[in-house]
Amino acid sequence: MNRIIRPSYSEEYPYEPNEFADIEEIECFVKQAKSTSINSLYLRAKEIVEEYNDQDYKKMALIATDILFSYFQDKFATTHYVIIVGDNDSSKSSLAITLTI
Asked: Which among 66, 64, 59 is positioned nearest to 85, based on CA atoms?
């Protein structure tokens, strides 16, 4: 059986595809990634959460941790799911939007 596998056309992607200008741009991102620590990634995620949400420290720390975890969840055998619940005007939508950034 001969099967030809081709990449999807950009119009078929359910998300915006990553595109690079050239190999140098990719190498620049690789260099940046190698010099970044897990702590700096967490602190950046926490900054984003704090910028868009008005919640107590524990909730913002949890959301920032979950954002970071989402990039590594394939490394673990199991995962958890965050369900955001609350009364009207409790910032559920803001938290959900922050998780999609």
From this structure: 59
